[in-house]
Design goal:
By secondary structure, the chain is α+β, with helices and mostly antiparallel strands. It folds into 4 domains: about 10-110, Rossmann fold (3-Layer(aba) Sandwich); about 125-195, ATP-grasp fold, A domain (Dna Ligase, domain 1, 2-Layer Sandwich); about 205-305, ATP-grasp fold, B domain (D-amino Acid Aminotransferase, Chain A, domain 1, 2-Layer Sandwich); about 315-385, no CATH class. The chain is built from 13 helices and 15 strands. The chain has a 5-stranded antiparallel sheet with strand order 13-12-11-14-15, sandwiched between helices. Helix 1 crosses helix 10, helix 2 (about 80-90) packs antiparallel against helix 3 (about 100-110) and helix 12 (about 345-360) packs antiparallel against helix 13. Mean pLDDT is about 85; it is low at about 325-340 and about 360-370.
């Protein structure tokens, strides 16, 4: 392995390997001197061995080695059920990093779990209720603002899983709400009710902010508009979006939300109440759409290339792991020759592995930190002396 390897092999794990997003990522990687290739999660077979360190990954019937790829960009979307276990196997059992973890993607894909994690981290979300039985419809709806057709008061219904506006509806009257919620219960589809946030003046298109956060920083943002007569602001549905410069408060809120879910790459959706000016995190997407945000940035002349930024972040993660391996080898080989390690009993070799893992967790190998490396070398020397 070469320190600061110039090119990277990038696996795009996606439900649509031949789709536009995959092609855009592959082309962006090639432009930067890297090789990217796309596969559906279902193409992979996961193998856990009964011996430590012998887990495997197969692409159909062919062995897929760690050397075949340096980093993964997950674009799972609707392939989460099998895709998340595949990504987790690649991360944990193969030791290959990804731009976002499986657990973070799962956190974002479930609207209730997402809301709970955000609320626990003191990130402002709309009032939300989750329930199983509808004992008192008025009580449920009143908790999130109430329903009154005459006054124009309504509540939002969301299924727990869904993207691009699917599984989302506006309940404007009590009869519709009662029939709909009972129907959802009869077909065993859990849903939640949420406060309706008014984002525009009467007769204007509804809108929200989609903010792209990569590595804890804002990369791009756009204002999305609804289809006329619809309350859902979604560029995939309306095709209408424009560049916007968010406020510092909105940027801080979006970064805090992404961090709360552990998302390294996130599309964060913010509603701003037209009357109060208060910002709310409505949803997070771990695999946000690329086509519209890139188009908006091109049309506005910002010079921001979101696809390129994803590739850059993937390469940064891969190099961090590669550098870790190289630096570990240098330090360990200087103090603990390979032939000596191999001669040790298996339990003792595990102790060495635990010592190295502890060092990695403390961030010792993330850069050339002389003091930390010196301390690690001393600890390793002490361990060697205690064993021999």
């Amino acid at each position: 392995m070469v320190l600061n390897k110039n090119y990277m092999n990038i696996l795009i794990l996606t439900k649509n390997p031949m789709g536009t997003t995959a092609k855009m990522l592959i082309e962006a990687a090639a432009e930067k001197g890297h090789k990217a290739f796309a596969h559906h999660p279902k193409e992979f077979i996961l193998y856990n061995s009964n011996k430590h360190g012998y887990d495997r990954l197969y692409l159909k019937s062919d062995r897929y080695f760690k050397r075949n790829f340096d980093v993964v960009i997950p674009r799972l979307g609707g392939a989460m059920r099998y895709g998340a276990p595949v990504l987790r196997h690649i991360n944990l059992c193969m030791g290959v990093p990804s731009t976002t973890s499986a657990i973070s993607l799962q956190n974002a894909s479930n609207k209730l779990l997402c809301n709970q994690l955000l609320s626990a981290k003191k990130v402002r979300v709309p009032k939300t209720v989750f329930f199983d039985e509808v004992y008192d419809l008025k009580h449920l709806t009143d908790l999130v603002g109430g329903i009154d057709l005459a006054e124009g008061k309504a509540v939002v219904m969301k299924t727990l899983i869904g993207s691009q506006g699917t599984g989302v509806g506006l309940l404007r009257d009590k009869l519709t709400a009662s029939l709909f919620l009972n129907s959802m219960r009869s077909i065993k589809v859990p849903c939640l009710l949420q406060e309706f946030i008014e984002t525009s003046k009467k007769d204007e298109s509804k809108c929200d902010l989609r903010m792209w956060i990569i590595g804890g920083k804002l990369v791009a943002a756009m204002k999305r508009y609804s289809v006329d007569g619809d309350f859902r602001a979604n560029a995939s549905l309306s095709g209408k979006a424009e560049h916007v410069t968010p406020t510092k408060e909105q940027i801080d809120l979006a970064v805090k939300a992404a961090n709360a879910l552990g998302l390294e790459i996130a599309g964060v959706d913010i509603f701003t109440d037209i009357d109060t000016g208060i910002n709310y995190i409505v949803e997070l997407n771990g695999c946000p759409g690329i086509k519209h945000i890139n188009k908006v940035q091109e049309e506005s002349g910002t010079g921001v290339n979101v696809v390129g930024a994803i590739i850059d972040y993937a390469v940064k993660k891969a190099r961090k792991v590669n550098n870790t391996g190289v630096m570990m080898s240098v330090v360990v080989n200087n103090h603990f020759p390979q032939e000596t390690v191999l001669s040790l009993p298996e339990d003792t070799r595990l102790d060495v592995a635990y010592l190295l893992s502890d060092a990695i967790n403390k961030g010792i190998f993330n850069g050339v930190y002389v003091e930390e490396l010196t301390e690690f070398a001393k600890n390793l020397d002490a361990f060697v002396k205690s064993e021999f």
